[in-house]
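__Record contents__

***
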Amino acid sequence: MEPREFFPQMPDEVFELWIKPIIAVNDWPFKDPSAPLPDFWRPYFLNLTLQQIADIRWEMGQFPFNIGAFGPNAQKSLMQMYFLHGRGMKQGLQVSENSEARYRAALSYAEVEFKLPCPVVLLRHGPHFGIFDGHHRLAGVYGMAFSGLLDRRGFPVDAWIGEL
């Protein structure tokens, strides 16, 4: 089974933004959707199984950025990434070698265009969101908010929002 076939309900853009880059770095070791996830893969999928990911219903939406819209783990991740890349403070966060460049590119784009370069991919979990894809982009917006660069309008976040 090809990776794309695992997720027939997933919009192509979600697959391209979220799953395809993971495969480019880590390959795709799974042969069927019932395969258990090794520990290494769990963070990419927010501890969901492949079958749960396949069952997600997706819709495109937009909301004004607010750190409180995210769950505690997502908030911590965004704050740590901002303090690491935006303030140079080591936060114990393990990041890829191009993490700072991705953060800076997203921040520069957001500051000029007042939007993100592409949608983020989120999972609605009760009243909060978990982040599948878009940590660097959202951390840049968090940095803008933390630094007082956002006015009362907020910052519009385009997102693919998944729900189980």
